[in-house]
Amino acid sequence: MARAPWALPVAIVLGATLVPLAKVGVDRSAEPRMTLTLTHRELMQRWGRNENSGEVLTWSWGMVPELDSLTAADLEDLGFHCRDQEYDCGIRSGRSGWIVVTLDTVTWQRGVDSLRTIFDSLLALPPDTVTRARLRELTWQLEQQVRQTSRLRAVAVGDDPAALATRYADGAHLVLAARLRPYRSRWSGDTRDPEASLYRIHADPTPATLYVPNEYAAEVRDTGGYRDRSFAVTVSVGRGWLPRVDRVEGLEPEPRAPE
Amino acid sequence: MAFKAELLQLAEEGIVLDEGTLDRIRAHHGALLADAPDERLSLGMRLASFVGAVALSAAVFFLFYRFWGALAVTSQVAILVTAPLLLVAVTHALHRREKTGYFATLAALTAVAAFVLELGALGTIFNLPPTPHAFLAWGLFGILLGRAYDLRLPHFAGMVALGLWVTALPGELRGEPLPDVWGRGEALALAGLAFLLTPRLAGVRARWHDDHRIVGMVGLFVGLFVLSVHGRASWLPVDHDLIEGLYQVVGFGAGVAVTAWGVRERRGHLANGGMIFLTLLCLFKAADWWWEWLPRWAFFLLIAAFAIGVMVALQRVRRAVSEGR
């Protein structure tokens, strides 16, 4: 047996640990590239954490994170070579890329206003059984919309995070690593241009969760839908494009919908 | 036990040794047995050591996740990095104290688990994108720890992790994310073939040949089986039915070749593995071809006939392996 048989295994542990820690060091060695403040609607506490004391948040989408009406040429720019006879551009599992996300408060507010308008118009009607039942249903829908419905949406995908960050450098967007999966949404014969198939591209951020450091964990604990507690999360993307939770603040509960 | 049976057989055949010779043989036998551990006890110890290692690894996982939420990031990182190093030290100490290696195996496997936990948890804490390269680190750690202390289980675990890394490489180069990098059957089959042939092509110590061959054989067979039933998992840009048919033929060929290799070189694990794979492939094809149009009783009768055929074939394979033909 060698004099120090432990040396190589120990070297592997230290070397393999150094790689992620160096990545994190580089990532945090400068000011964040982008910062966005989201809420419990967009980053939800992960459920089913049996005996796990750590807190992680998962992305919750207002709209499915997809871009549609893309042509084969659009996808070619992203490195996908799509042929008409293939549903998934020959890459069923997708590939690594980048997604730009933002908060679409306008669409969210439109949903709130629309429900409130219906609610107000019902209030003007005689309070019969049908109206009261409908009002109860609308109250619940309004609460869902105000408290739970996410405003998060994907606005762009790409294979160069720096180019995306330059294009969306307005303080209202984040660039995240993602898994991109293209698929054909229409056959060529279905479109106005008979030669062109149209595609969609679905993007899932990787990793799928964000870790909440323990100094902020109390703010998000037990907020997974059972309680009225709300919070705002500031998420940053560092120099190495790693996302991180910078701050979590408890918010005052949203006002309840009128009874 | 076998030696005593030999003596009895000699007596039955009328070959009688004089009392002095018998005494010397008994004394020699007694000395041998005193030095060698009892085989059943040894098997029990191996099993207990394996179960203990798995349970201890699970305990380490759950213990960390039970309390990590209360710790600051620096404490989390310190604990995660220290745990595998500490367990390597424990493995070293146990290996020096006890030469059979059961307790050292337990500590070494727990060290592997702590290292898996370390890289996994660091990924979660710092929101790192998942990468298959962690399997390279886990694989090398298990293999080096196993070879350093002559421990089979951590070495085997390391071989499995290294095999998963090799399988993931082509997908990783194509920019495929986890876990889809393992979705291509050819990558698994080729990685399996490489592991299977490593002992022949590279200078690996004979002690570790079986681990290479077992991991390689399982990888090769699983890869071929996946391709033979799911043509979409192939890299080949041709019709999926054609791919499935092609890999069924390749699968049968590989099964026969591995079985023949096992018989020729008297390696039971290869011969049995090959036969089991051929059996599974045949059963799957039988269900595929006949389940729909045969009455149930006839289908199961056919399977029973097939099973009897396999038993006869396995008997012959076993005989051939023991005779070295």
Write structural notes for this entry.
Chain A has helices spanning 7-27, 72-77, 105-123, 129-148, 161-167, 214-220, and strands at 34-39, 43-45, 55-59, 66-70, 95-103, 152-158, 173-186, 198-205, 209-212, 230-237, 243-251. Chain A is of the alpha+beta class and 259 residues long. Chain B has 12 helices and no strands. With 325 residues, chain B is mainly α. Helix content of chain B is 80%, strand content 0%. The model of chain B has no long low-confidence stretch (mean pLDDT 83).
What topology emerges from the helices and strands here?
The complex is a heterodimer of chains A (259) and B (325).
Chain A: H1 7-27, E1 34-39, E2 43-45, E3 55-59, E4 66-70, H2 72-77, E5 95-103, H3 105-123, H4 129-148, E6 152-158, H5 161-167, E7 173-186, E8 198-205, E9 209-212, H6 214-220, E10 230-237, E11 243-251
Antiparallel strand pairs in A: 1-10, 2-3, 3-9, 4-8, 5-6, 5-7, 7-8, 10-11
Chain B: H1 2-12, H2 19-35, H3 39-67, H4 73-97, H5 102-125, H6 133-149, H7 152-173, H8 185-201, H9 209-229, H10 240-264, H11 268-290, H12 296-323
Helix pairs in contact in B: 3-5, 4-5, 5-6, 5-7, 6-7, 7-8, 7-9, 8-9, 9-10, 9-11, 10-11, 10-12, 11-12
In short:
The complex is a heterodimer of chains A (about 260) and B (about 325). By secondary structure, chain A is an alpha+beta fold.
The biggest chain-chain interface is: A-B, 47 and 50 residues
| Overall number of structural domains of chain B | 2
Taken from the alpha-carbon principal axes, the silhouette of chain A is: globular
Major sheet characteristics of chain B: none
Structural class by SSE content of chain A: alpha+beta
> Helicity level of chain A, as a percent range?
25-40%
